[in-house]
Amino acid sequence: MKSLVNQKNTSDVQNIDLTPENIADYGVCGYKDIKKHIEITRKIEWFTEYYKKGLRTKIIFSQKSGYQGMLEYIPGKFAHRPVDADGYMFIHCIFVGFKNEYKGKGYASSLIDECIKDAGKEDMHGVAVVVRKGPFMADKDIFLKKGFVSVDNAPPDFELLALKFNKLTVSPRFKEMSLDKYQNGLTIIRSAQCPYSVKNVDAILKTAAKLKIKSHLIDIKDSGIAQQTPCAFGTFCIIYNGEVISYHPISNTRFENIIKNYKVK
């Protein structure tokens, strides 16, 4: 299903619903070449599985410039974040503008509006999203303008926002996150929900081996496990000796610098 985004002088821009049938045509999060990027293969497999459970992805597509933004959301029961958000539509991620000319045009706002409409059609309690300042997470301001409010927080600076259709409805919340099981060595937690979680992990594990650091990779296989992760980002986390050293995907070079500084402490 395609619908033109109502913007002046941008008639080539469309808001497109991805499906298991067309996702390979458009790609995911900037990845498009299936033969070149294992990230997109894993993401498409994950997308196909959860599409049956209500997962939806809407993209901003320009005939001139290609893929320029996306919004991914899913019923809270299947959220890949450590949240209790059953009954809410849950936004995993949103971004707009690989090219600056597509930023500040209202495209992100239009995508959120579509999610809110779908939540209403599904008779849900509202819409929820996890935000923080920094990479890989949406800035909260765009949600606050839509009427979302902060309902919970998690360390170091994550917030859970909700737009409740009925103010008397119980708010979503973060689940308890514990690092007790991760006190020894290096643990990397990742999920195919985030395609960026594939890149650099092999290099990081090789670096850990060279440094003789005991390491363990956990590939999250389902939403239930994702909701038990010790990091509010949910689908990626690097833990070293009981301390989270990265809440989002990083390069091997960045990992080397973190470990170097950690050992100097």
Explain the layout of strands and helices.
Layout: E1 2-4, E2 13-17, H1 23-26, H2 38-51, E3 56-62, E4 66-75, E5 83-84, E6 88-96, H3 107-121, E7 126-131, H4 141-144, E8 149-154, E9 158-164, E10 173-174, E11 186-191, H5 201-210, E12 215-220, H6 223-226, E13 236-240, E14 243-246, H7 252-264
Parallel strand pairs: 6-7, 11-12
Antiparallel strand pairs: 1-2, 2-3, 3-4, 4-6, 5-10, 7-9, 8-9, 11-13, 13-14
Helix content: 10-25%
- Summed up, the domain count is 2
Radius of gyration: 19 Å
Shape: globular
CATH architecture of the largest domain: 3-Layer(aba) Sandwich
CATH topological fold name of the largest domain: Aminopeptidase
The ordered H/E elements are EEHHEEEEHEHEEEEHEHEEH
Q: How many DSSP helices?
A: 7
Task: Produce a short descriptive summary.
Helix content is 24%, strand content 29%. It has helices at 23-26, 38-51, 107-121, 141-144, 201-210, 223-226, 252-264, and strands at 2-4, 13-17, 56-62, 66-75, 83-84, 88-96, 126-131, 149-154, 158-164, 173-174, 186-191, 215-220, 236-240, 243-246. The protein is globular, with a radius of gyration of 19 Å.
